[in-house]
């Protein structure tokens, strides 16, 4: 059975600003890594059919309670992300494949970032479909919520 995770947040910024942060390399490296991680983009091709490789590194590589294991190494998550659809300023659709020897992270997850004008700002909803079973729902939703909080600070 496939799983869908969904997280939303209102952001005090125009949706054009939010959309730009979704498709700008430097912006993504700044706000996309969830709390407790840093990020680096290894290649960048911002067009439908293009994409990027994101390397997320845990700031505390020692692991421990409350921290999920890395998908690629104990300290990293590496994902190849393809842009499926870019519809400014409303939507970004991405296909995400994790680099991992663990089959529970195999497969292609689709992430849709929707930006809707709302109450003088932008309601951003992230919908992830076909989520690999190795990614715990609570961890995934907390990670997305953390990224959205950082996006709000970045564009706010």
From TrEMBL:
It comes from the Bacteria. InterPro entries: ASHA1/2-like_C, START-like_dom_sf. Pfam families: AHSA1 (PF08327). Residues 12-155 form the Activator of Hsp90 ATPase homologue 1/2-like C-terminal domain. CDD domains: SRPBCC_CalC_Aha1-like_2 (cd08895). Belongs to the AHA1 family. This is SRPBCC family protein.
